[in-house]
Specification:
653 residues; mainly beta; Jelly Rolls; eight-stranded antiparallel β-sheet; globular; seven-stranded antiparallel β-sheet; 4 domains; 41% strand
Length: 653
């Protein structure tokens, strides 16, 4: 059982995408997706892009006297001083983050890390340090930082600091796999997470702490042949199961994938005489004794010592069973030995940031399988707890002192967790949930919901790809390899009639591959065939106010242009599209004109004529106006290929 969980902090940062090279102290010129990123740590400003995360007692500084002499012109390194971890609260996590920009948390420089091949750096350990119980100095989990204001960490791998690193520079090369579980196509920095953050782990440094140095950091890009086209993965093709799908999408075991109640008042076992929590499972992972489906009640202080926000789990507090002080867990697993299933009831009190007694089973109820209806009922006066499986019922009496702690603010959680590698990529599907007998009853039929009801729930996971509400209109799930830029799925129920594009209800990443939830509507009643087709940019589409894009339809749009007013600006959307009006990724310069009407003006053109804009991922939005009454149609032209044009519908003004 993984008993702790990486927690994230939200820090605001305003940034703009860097499309060209920039100048910083790390290197003179760096063009994202063309050059390798290099920070030789040769100046005092070179560590300005690095910050500590999560209050670990460590410091970052530039040391001009310590550097790898094997590198010509070297003049310093980044020094990292870590105090002894067991003097810190368990929730502290020892993370260093460095941006590709010019300051800490600077998200202005973005790279597509899929184009890069290795993360390279040199490491040295100070002579005052001694090896740990494993005979080394621990190491670092290394990966990329992605996302906007919400920070997402995608682990690339682990780099050990061996005993030989004592007073001897060790050159580390960490290859970047092409099938990482997370998306690294828009990375703004790197992170180094110390392996020394786990209290009692023999990989911790001794009581004297640890000082090490990093030099010659490089994210290496190596020109090579283009990657192969994506291929469909037949093993992923399965019938969609409507409801809340909680999928272990990451590469690490122990991550929880949750939906949690938005409200924290009126759900607790003491808010009514007898409160009953009921849920239905319609699909369960084929990972006996490994994968967990969980229902949890949580309240009290979290591992920081104080309640989070409204008293419920915060937006990055996905390891609720570990972080929160008072937690009840009803966990369902299938059984290897007997081929059946069971639900264990466990709880802890006043133990934030710890497992406490939570993995000591108090009561168990069995069933023939995990599929079916499960429930937990709690009587506040007697403390009688009744556990019901699809076939059986049992009960026990919870001690009054513990039960008395489960009061508002209190949150309810449904979760899934791969507790071993056999559960990675697998899921539990909840089709419904209800809470009755409490002050704030809940009844939610997930299997008929089109989207997750955010008045009741919010999704919470390290990787939100693993929380999917599959609607009743879904037909199948199908996956394919990456990279897959520009490719779309097509389906046919009759090969003689050919294939037709299908727009997924949603796509998400699972174990590094793309998964698509496809609608039932275009599928035939019997056999269906699937393929991937690359979108080829062939024309420009022009959308006026009142019109909406409708890919894979005869005209590519719906709606009617609204009447405009002369001398008042309005937006015109231009899309680079394929023959079926699917938007294609393109960044060409496009020009908008209306030669017959001298009253036409473009207000936001960026070129000398004032009539051009660059496409961004295939789309540009022009602001235009007409200074006199009339009606007309506008024309757009791709300046890199003037054969690609588009004409708007007639607009009246």
């Amino acid at each position: 059982m993984k008993t702790n969980q990486l927690k994230h902090s939200m820090l605001a940062a305003c940034a703009a995408l860097a499309l060209a090279g920039f100048l910083n102290s790390a290197q003179a010129q760096f063009t994202p997706n063309v050059d390798s990123y290099i920070n030789a740590f040769d100046t005092s400003a070179s560590t300005a892009t690095w910050v500590n995360w999560y209050n670990w007692t460590q410091t970052i500084s530039w040391n001009p006297n310590v550097f790898n002499p094997a590198t010509a012109g070297n003049a310093g390194s980044m020094e990292i001083d870590l105090a002894s971890p067991w003097t810190q609260p368990v929730s502290q996590q020892g993370i260093l983050m460095g941006s590709f920009g010019t300051a800490g948390w600077d998200r202005s420089v973005i790279i597509n890390a899929n184009l890069y091949t290795n993360i390279i750096f040199d490491v040295l350990v100070n002579s005052n340090c001694v090896v740990n119980g494993n005979g080394d100095f621990g190491g670092y989990y290394v990966g990329f930082m992605t996302g906007g204001n919400a920070n997402t960490m995608v682990q690339v791998g682990f780099v050990s600091m061996p005993a030989v690193a004592l007073n001897h520079w060790v050159h580390c090369v960490l290859p970047i796999p092409k099938n990482l579980a997370g998306d690294i196509s828009a990375a703004w920095g790197l992170y180094f997470q110390s392996s020394h953050w786990w209290d009692g782990d023999p990989s911790e440094p001794p009581s004297g702490g640890l000082t090490n140095y990093i030099d010659n950091l490089e994210v290496q890009i190596t020109p090579g042949p283009p990657p192969p086209p994506p291929s469909l993965l037949p093993a992923t093709l399965k019938k969609a199961n409507p409801g809340v799908n909680l999928i272990a999408t990451g590469a690490a075991t122990g991550n929880r994938y949750n939906i949690i109640t938005t409200n924290t008042v009126g759900y607790g076992p003491r808010s009514g005489n007898t409160v009953t929590y009921t849920w239905n499972i319609t699909q369960f992972a084929n990972d006996p004794d490994g994968f967990l489906g969980m229902f949890m009640l949580s309240c009290g202080a979290d591992s920081s010592g104080t309640p989070n926000g409204n008293g419920g789990p915060g937006p990055y507090d996905s390891a609720i069973d570990w972080n929160w002080g008072n937690v009840i867990v009803a966990s369902i697993q299938e059984n290897t030995n007997h081929g059946d299933a069971y639900m264990n009831f466990r709880y802890k009190t006043n133990a934030p940031g710890a497992n406490g007694s939570i993995w000591t089973t108090v009561c168990t109820v069995s069933a023939s399988s995990a599929i079916g209806q499960w429930s937990v009922s709690i009587n506040k006066d007697s403390g009688l707890v009744t556990l019901t499986s699809p076939q059986n019922t049992t009960n026990f009496t919870m001690d009054a002192a513990s039960l008395a702690l489960f009061v508002d603010p209190l949150a309810l959680t449904l979760a899934g967790e791969a507790n071993d590698s056999g559960g990675l990529g697998q899921s539990v599907v909840y089709s419904s949930f209800s809470a009755t007998g409490c002050a704030t009853p809940i009844s939610d039929n997930f299997a008929t919901d089109m989207t997750l009801n955010t008045n009741i729930w919010f999704p919470l996971a390290v990787d939100l790809n693993g929380v999917q509400l599959v609607p009743p209109t879904a037909g199948v799930l199908v996956g394919w390899t990456r990279p897959d830029n520009g490719y779309i799925p097509e389906v046919s129920s009759n090969l003689l009639a050919g294939f037709a594009p299908v727009t997924p209800i949603a796509t998400f990443l699972d174990m590094g591959n793309t998964m698509a939830i496809l609608p039932q509507a275009p599928l035939g009643p019997n056999a269906n065939f699937f393929r991937l087709l690359k979108r080829v940019y062939s024309q420009l589409q022009v959308l006026l106010p009142g019109e909406t894009a409708a890919p894979n339809t005869p005209t590519g749009k719906t709606g009617t242009p609204i009447l405009e007013t002369n001398s008042m600006a309005f937006d015109v959307i231009v899309n680079a599209v394929d023959a079926n009006f699917n938007v294609c990724n393109n960044n060409d310069q496009v020009q908008i004109t209306d030669t017959p009407d001298s009253n036409f003006e473009c207000l936001n053109g960026t070129d000398s004529t004032g009539t051009m804009l660059p496409l961004a991922n295939g789309t540009a939005t022009f602001s235009v106006e007409f200074t006199g009454d009339g009606s007309s149609a506008m024309v757009v032209t791709d300046q890199a290929d003037t054969s690609k044009t588009g004409t708007s519908a007639v607009v009246t003004y």
